[in-house]
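Good morning,

Both structures are done.
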Amino acid sequence: MGPGWRVVALALLLGVSQAGAQEGIFNAFSNNTGLGADYCIVYNPVWMPFPKSLAGATRYQLQDLTTTMLCNQTDVPPEGIKDKLVVVMRGNCTFIRKAQIAQMNHAKALVVASVHRILPPSGNQSDLEEIKIPVALISYNDVLSMKKMLGDQISAALYSPPVSPLDYSILIIFIIAVATVALGSYWSGVEEYESGNPAPPNSSTRTREQDKPNQPSALLTPLTVVAFVVVCCTMIVLLYFFYKWLVYVVIAIFSLAAAISLYNCLAAVMKRIPYCKCKFPCGNRRIEVCLVLLAVFCVAVSAVWVVFRNEDRWVWILHDCLGAAFCLNFMKTLKMPNFKSCVILLGLLLIYDVFFVFITPFFTRNHESIMVEVAAGSGGDAGEKLPVVIRVPRLVFSVATVCGMPFSLLGFGDIIVPGLLVAYCRRFDVQTNTSNIYFVLCTIVYAIGMILTFVVLILTKMAQPALLYLVPCTLLTCAVTAWSRKEMKMFWTGSSYEMVNPVGTVNEDTLSEPTSDYP
């Protein structure tokens, strides 16, 4: 995959997050088999608050009336609905009307099944005061799934456990993000050091990395940065309107990029191991058997992810490994030439992030942000999700684990974009021999910015554009450090990258190699 494709892939794979609403849990239990299942419901707590735990909830016998809408008294069956939890279809009459009829016939709770998007029920305040039974909405698909799995004899309870302010999955995501940024930036610096300090051709210390051509690097100049941000904006808008088709394009791009990235990461490790040097001839070259086997392994891993990508119970581990490799490879190959380009890139993507999270709800029909809609996969029919996030299952049970957010999420873009700045700091340290001061400080403030993001997310319980906190932390720290060390001019313009060609090309001398490769 060439550098140009890397830029397009990153534009496609910038990450986002999502948030929930007034949600509860419909706990269904089969009276025949003893099986149980939880389903998401949406309710209005102004009508009647739900119990906070299953132990505090009352279980009622479920009566399925989804063949009716309960808009008239004649919709009540002859045997009545007394002491039952009634499930009816959503129709032309109001929720208040349905609740009044259910209450007059001594039902204990009313659940309305909706084929379309479920929203909290609403009504006039004067009418609400008359409603004394719980009312909630559930997806009609969940009702069908419930009946198929549990049968006809079902009892159910409604409750709404609070979302824990702190889930330990956030800590795991924090470790993955910081470790990926630090390792990817350090790797970029190692490559910079080796390319700037080549061993003599006949030296016994010549590394196997130097025996091969350097991989082409993509260099983001200011003009390229602006074009890249335009591509980002275009892609997210296209995904919003054509999600159910483009999601498969993104999946295909990610599977290919993940296989290549995993190979590059593991190959870099294998080149440091003084074993597995067996080679076989191929034309004028000799190819290492280990690297061929490694390529097959990486393609197989990516293929396994494609096949089982919707198996949430375990595939998240494989997905996160591929995602981390993807981020590492981008930070190593996509290079910023100077701090000026970093400021332009991070500044524009900060505006992009804030706009698509906070501003777009004012323009969309359902008043949801485009970021949230795309991340949630609301336009998809088959439940496909964009592979653009690091995800870890929530470790504390709550309503969020049932209602579409069983994972804590962090977008790839929240790792890659600040990571490009950290990688530039690492390479600048190598070029100027500054004892990694820029790299260490930028990595630390990235971790601080991540903590700040999580704190605001917990306090507001709203989706947050992480770049809103990561960009100021990293850019300001780098600027203050360069200014205090009187290196701002060199840090701003870069020390040696002005001689490197734009995106997609490298100097010819970096590609020179022997015509054969014998041990």
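Second structure follows.
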Amino acid sequence: MSEAATSPEVHEETDSAGRLVAADGTPLKRSLGRALRRQKMRALALIAPLLLFILITFIAPIADMLFRSVENDIVARTLPDTVDALGDWDYSSGEIPGDEAFLALYRDLSVAVEYKTHTRLGSRLNYETTGISSLFRKTGRGVEDIGELYQDQFEDLDEAWEEPETWARLMGSESWLAAEDRTATAFELRDGIAGALPNTARAYSEFATFTQNEDGDDPAEEDPWAYVYAMLWLDLTGPAQLDAYEGPDAALLAAAAEAAPGFESIGWREGLVDIDEDWEDIDVWGTIKAYSGEFTSGYFLNSVDLQLTPAGVEAQDENQRIYIKLFWRTILMSLAITCSCILLGYPVAWLLANLPMRTSNLLMILVLLPFWTSLLVRTSAWKVLLQQQGVINDILVWAHIIADDNRLIMINNVTGTIIAMTHILLPFMILPMYSVMQTIPPTYLRAAKSLGATNWVAFWRVYFPQSVPGIGAGSILVFILAIGYYITPELVGGTKGVFISNRIAYHISTSLNWGLAAALGTILLAAVLLLYWAYDKIVGIDNVKLG
């Protein structure tokens, strides 16, 4: 862009204050600043699509991964009353919580079962304590029986309790009852009913909200949950304040209050324990409390073979300590693959850069040929080549290099993973080195030889230092690709050659433990950044070139 297009026209003019001004009379400094801002806005508009793409496809997924690695609101969201009831409970006391916690758990589970969130909660806690998932599923199937015990007795007392309209008149406000479309009108409690029957009013509100929002039905036409009847019995046998209630069906409510103390009943603890005896296991309650916070360090602790228990941070069982081992294996094998790619790729890149163009182009086609073949096909081919009855072992036996009963084990171990991944990632090492070597003038070597250097000295003292930037670029590329591979290690690595990325893929697609997968991914990302920083300090990232 020309200077005339970006800068205001300047005249040898001054204003009354003696300042230079542009042709339109604007002070020159202000006019230049305005032109500069316009330039910056145009530049920003040009790169905005790229910034948006990076934000959506790179920054946002990483931010989501970081959040998932600590997010843990499912416990407090699904069991809010239980979490509050456990606030003052001490796991170290050795005693399970009191009846208040069991009542809170019954309330929370009764609602969670309707929303079908209790199974997700059980799956989450099952990552920490085995067996909790089946406990929540079994309790979800049986928790309604507790409420039905009271529902049957209220309905036997008076048939009016069977009618949804009775509950709607008792609980709903006059304005809500008079609404033309009660499914679309937010439910409102009748004035005074929450003071008279606090537990029942809350339970019916939860039922009404669910019926309207989830089912799209009119609560006045649907039978209340059995849980609502249990809460009505709880209110009528407690310090209910029915004297102040003068709304509809007051007589019906008074008769129920008189009969309720004589109903057959079951304690909240007894009812839940009858469903499953594990509710008397202190570790179950301890796990719920330990993971009741909105955020948790549990996933990161699991990622380093530790665990968050009710008693605090402890080491995992010895047979479950696999992640630190996998992290070290991933880093060391990625470094081994990078080194093997350097050793194999450097001579090839040198030949490509120094042979005549026709021969060099032919070799370049061979280097690029693997890119035209599916990764799955290349990996499967190595399974055929490396197995004990495979091509390589057959050739070694035919050549009498090894005995037939002493065939090499090169598959389902570290050896197979390194061989297969070196073959797959080798082009990514050759291309950066070749592009840098092409820029090294051959006259440098001839000048070194003319000064008396041998071929080796000329190469080592003159040529090799100039090729280091290509080695650095290829090493970073290969190492970062290797550390995140999971298809090839999964197919040829067996149990001894898999990477941490295989466990991340397992938790994402099979166990559905996305929190642990996110924590493992975050640690892997931190390890890569740390190694990148170390490389920058030792070699210098400014020395990395692609030609």
